[in-house]
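Q: what sequence does this backbone want?
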């Protein structure tokens, strides 16, 4: 019985480790740039810039009516650390 238990524990441990490794490798890496590119694909954004020296993300949207939706999108997609670090500046030059 002892050998069967040890073998079963070894198999179970192997399956758990392989599952964790598979799950970890399947996660998409997070980056602020990736979120901003997805914003570009989702909304009509004219331009954006992420400040290096000043912690500001500036976004120029075509339609000022989209600003609340863009802000909501960013709050949902950006990490808590990014939201704490960066000031988000949304504006529309054209409407």
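A:
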């Amino acid at each position: 019985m002892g050998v069967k238990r040890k073998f079963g524990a070894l198999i179970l441990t192997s399956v758990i480790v392989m599952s964790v490794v598979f799950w970890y490798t399947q996660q998409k890496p997070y980056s602020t740039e990736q979120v901003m590119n997805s914003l570009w694909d989702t909304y009509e954004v004219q331009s954006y810039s992420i400040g290096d020296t000043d912690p500001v993300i500036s976004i120029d949207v075509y339609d000022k009516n989209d600003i609340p939706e863009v802000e909501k999108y960013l709050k949902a997609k950006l990490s808590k650390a990014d939201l704490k670090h960066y000031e988000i500046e949304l504006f529309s030059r054209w409407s």
